[in-house]
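Entry 14. Ran structure prediction on the chain below.
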Amino acid sequence: MGNLYGAAPVDEIKLGRMADDYLTELSGVFPSEKYLTEITRDHGADLATMIFYKSILQIPENQQFIAKIDSFSIKQTYPRTNIKLYVVPAFFYQEYPEVGGDGKHILEVAKVCGIDAELIPIKSTGTVSENTEIIYQTLNQCDADRVWIMSMSKGSAEVRLLFQNYDNQVVIDKVKIWFNVNGLANGCHLVDHMLKTPVRRLKTRALCTATGASYKGLEQLLTAQPEWQQKLVLPAALKVINICGVPLLSHVQKALIARYNRLKHLGPNDGMVLLSKAFIAKGPVYPLWGADHFLRDTRIAPLLYRLFGCLIDEANTNT
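Output, structure tokens:
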């Protein structure tokens, strides 16, 4: 029958108290990737993950943002807005819509909130570069004054490349908010693992042939690629909001257990990417404790209602 879960449940209260001792030593400094890797090596990924999570919650900007969103009441009805939301979906969103990478649930909530929302029809198994061009052309044809973009997983790499490749284009000024959801905006550590040796590369090529995925597209997600080494300079007026799942091994769903285990020696991860690389430093982080890369969590819909509602009120106040 195989493993039903990645690990048995742990005493998370005890784990949190253990993490507090390390937070005291850090004195408010956010733990580096190297620090988290060392904690993982010496004490295990669970403790490193709890330290990462609690460190996020200690940052004043995150505290204020989380409190603001959590205190916002979900309304019964919403007036129509002049906001256009584009959702940039995840890898394989057409082949496996049941995962949620097509963002259908996001579009439904956004429309209830009075937002004109649509999916950008990027290529489901395409490269980052060709999908970035599709996003640019979509924005270029949009006549809305206020545009929000929500990118999921690989979609965040494509949105990052959009800002890097078209940084001096007027079309970029339309984008007021970028929601980075479990993003691969700094590459994908699982892809690093998949392409690390000749044997793994051969197996991955065979997998790409079988699934129709682009091997070149996977190569572009290597964390060492030049695109992800550039300093990301975003428009000063752009608001970035990060949503990131933070799971222990016992939280990870069955489909991601093997992937999580391939990365856990490096530190906290969500089954696809190291958590320290899953967010854009420019904006606040809303962490979802216990959620993995697929974000199959009952808190998602309420969070989206509160997030959209709060930001709509904020936008209306500032106009």
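The chain has a mean pLDDT of 94. Will compare against last week's run tomorrow.
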